[in-house]
Amino acid sequence: MAGLTDPLPDPYPVRRAARVSGVVEPPGSKSISHRALNLALIGRQPATIENLLEADDIAAFRVVLDAMGWRLHSVSGSGLRVEPPLKDGSEDAVRLDCRSAGTLLRLLVASCAVTPGEWILDGSTRLRERPIGPLVAALRRLGAEIDELGRPGCAPVRVRGGRLAGGRVEIDAGESSQYVSALLMAALNAEGPIEVLVPVLVSSPYVDTTLEVMADFGAPVEVRRDGEAREFRVEPRGPQLANGRYRVAGDDSAAAYPAAAAAICGGSVRLRGLSPVASQGDRAFLGLIERMGATVQATEEEIRVEADGTLTAVDCDLSAMPDQVPTLAAVAAFAEGTTRIRNVAHLRIKESDRLAAVATGLRRAGVAVDELADGLRIDGDPGLVAPPGAPRIPIDTYDDHRIAMSMALVGLRRGGLSIRHPEVVGKSYPGFWRDLSGIRR
């Protein structure tokens, strides 16, 4: 098995597993790592972030902080010490390369609006296609100076840092909850209280994660709900850790892959290093695979997922955890009956058009799937196995880590698949191939 620093064969052959068994400790949460670094940036105070995810998206954040003048020092145990610049601002515009990290771009558009200096935010070709227009519009209404330098509503943008005015603003979060998270954190450096009205919010658990991390940084937010609408009130206060240290919880999104492997292949996987409190939205994925036939047992120390490989289809709305649509689709490929995944049209503006990418990959693997406007319909086949001696089918990943990992799960039970550009998993879960190999039996 290739190590984390060894080159991977491309395409990467996924060996079939008779069952899975073992212990997996997922890396630090990508969502929480982003938010912790962003709050340190907004607070302009030294901080030590422990168990920080070591992956491509967080590496991009580290490069950005360095370009902004922050001093970074690695500490033991996947930790990072961040110290603010000795002086604010710069005479010249500073280019910040967000690479392909959509979360980073959206957080920075707001954070740079309250950070002295002139900042030009850009990234990969795909990142330039991902929308930020509603966030830019809301920030402008609060006094931010932002110029779009290319396609309207997308990167690159120029942001002149200062302070946001207080007041009330409405934001359209029908495309991404990240707009709300970015605005709430930036509001901590406003001239007065900011009230944010959100009539429609997709992926709401990610905003709940933002609120939890803000509270950990000493900046609680008042929340009022009226049906689907939410209203947030943020009092301006510099976020600051009580003891200058923050520990990132294990990633429930990453944990979903070994959990799904147990459901698909049968066996037992023990997940360690996760928070005993289900604060991340993707923890709910475990409830879905329970509905499909797996058994999940949680203690303070670990979560155990057991299954015999017998699965039944589900009909579910995954708008609250869209990152797990490809994972659930992989499980559904082997479930008895037809699985319907609903209300996830916004997946078309992720790292790839994930609905199209999942449908294409599953069809190549021999699964009957219909791509719908807002989701997928998958006719499972419990007996799906690669014919003996058949050549491996290469699966495109579209530079999308979640497509690579979910289609690898299909190959784990079906056999006969190989994953193109396997290194893309480094965006969120660099140890994925090692962990997958470690539980295969």
Please characterize this protein's 3D structure.
- By secondary structure, the chain is of the alpha/beta class.
- The chain has 2 domains: 12-27 and 250-439, UDP-n-acetylglucosamine1-carboxyvinyl-transferase, Chain, CATH 3.65.10.10; 30-247, UDP-n-acetylglucosamine1-carboxyvinyl-transferase, Chain (Alpha-beta prism), CATH 3.65.10.10.
- Helix content is 30%, strand content 23%.
- It is built from 12 helices and 23 strands.
- It has helices spanning 30-43, 56-67, 102-113, 133-141, 178-186, 204-216, 252-265, 285-292, 325-332, 354-364, 401-414, 432-439; strands at 12-14, 20-24, 47-50, 71-75, 79-83, 94-97, 117-122, 145-148, 157-161, 167-170, 194-198, 222-226, 229-234, 245-247, 267-272, 295-298, 302-307, 315-317, 338-342, 368-371, 376-379, 393-395, 417-419.
- The strands form 6 sheets. It has a 4-stranded mixed beta sheet with strand order 2-15-17-16, with helices on one face. A 4-stranded mixed beta sheet has the order 4-5-3-14, with helices on one face. It has a 4-stranded mixed beta sheet with strand order 6-7-9-8.
- β22 (393-395), α11 and β23 form a beta-alpha-beta unit.
- α7 (252-265) packs parallel to α11 (401-414) and α9 packs parallel to α11.
- The longest helix is centred in the first third of the chain and has 14 residues, at 30-43.
- The radius of gyration is 22 Å and the shape is globular.
- 50% of the residues are buried.
- The mean pLDDT is 95.
Q: How is the CATH topology of the largest domain named? A: UDP-n-acetylglucosamine1-carboxyvinyl-transferase, Chain
How many beta-strand segments? 23
- The CATH class of the largest domain is Alpha Beta
Largest sheet: 4 strands, mixed
**Unreliable residue stretches:** none
Tell me the name of the CATH homologous superfamily of the largest domain: Enolpyruvate transferase domain
